Amino acid sequence: MDKTPKIVTFKEEEVNSLLGITISKEDMEIELNRLDFPYEYKNNEFIVTIPKRRLDIDPYVNDIAEEVGRLYGYHNLKSTLPICSIKKGEYKGDVKYRKIISKRLRTLGLNECKTYTLTSPKMAKLFRYDSKENKELPNQMSVDKSILRTTIIPSLLNVYDYNKARKNKDVFLYEISKTYDINYQEESKIALLIKGNYVQNEWNKIAVKADFFLLKGMIENLLDYMGLKNRYSFEKDTIPNLHPGMSARILLDKKPIGIIGRVHPSLKKDEIYVAELSLNALMINVKPLKFKEANKYPEITKDVAFILDNEIDSETIKKCIIKEGKKILTNCEVFDLYPNIKDGKKSLAYKLTFQDETRTLTEEEVMNVFNEIIKKVTETFRAELRDK
Description:
The protein is an alpha+beta fold. The protein is built from 10 helices and 19 strands.
């Protein structure tokens, strides 16, 4: 049997903290005497020796507090709410952005799917747009699941084939998953696939068909929702396994973060559109949304159409218009394309919105800027102003 004396050293504040009340030093001494616990009081501390007869008490201050409180009277304990630090409950890291992005894409009418991280050698060779090398597993379960994928798009094409075989003609999918390179370096990506009718009303003979611009609008909607408006752009480029006339890189702050385009007809005869974005790149650049009061001053809108060479894309013209529009041009949108209006020429029409946050603009100053825009575009791109 252990005959080592059980000694507890504590301050009265420790007992009071455990009980939630204030017991004076004198009252604490009274209770210790009633317990017949020998003690000394030195340097503002109690040094208590627990008698050997009390085998139920261990040499800890919480046991002493329980005994003191029992004799002092539990009816003297006050009912109070616990005081503790709290923090906001929220998701962190990539889980947070997965939730945000997934919710937005479902709002846009896309269905989430989950596919294997492992793929076949044939599928691993498709859509190699970022020059990453694949990692082949040393102990393979099967050939069709032998390689770690660097892109999600081929997996979504497999899901499309599965739906097509079951007569599902309208397929709108997205997936958010991790990809891996040859060094097992992780990168989370967001992939989208659309095919068929986005909106269909047989009664009114209305159908909105999936195309490049519908998918581009979905990407823009997502990036705007994440607070990246006016920081992204689309740059025409030739991308493996995408249609050369319908493919582009997605840039954020002029750095590539993904691709968009139509699947090449040699790979899939169906009109399928896909896009993929790096979630890692978005996480680094996302900033909190800023809100401002709605402008109380009226806006002025002007429409203008230019006849241009077919090789000139609308984004280039838009950038020129915005630059020349100075601070009073608040929005510029393409609303009409007329191809082959002349030999090697097309017509692009833009809607320009002018507004000032501090005052009402006059027709004269708007027309001055409007005419400067027309002059700049016609001179820079050898364009003609289309008047009808």
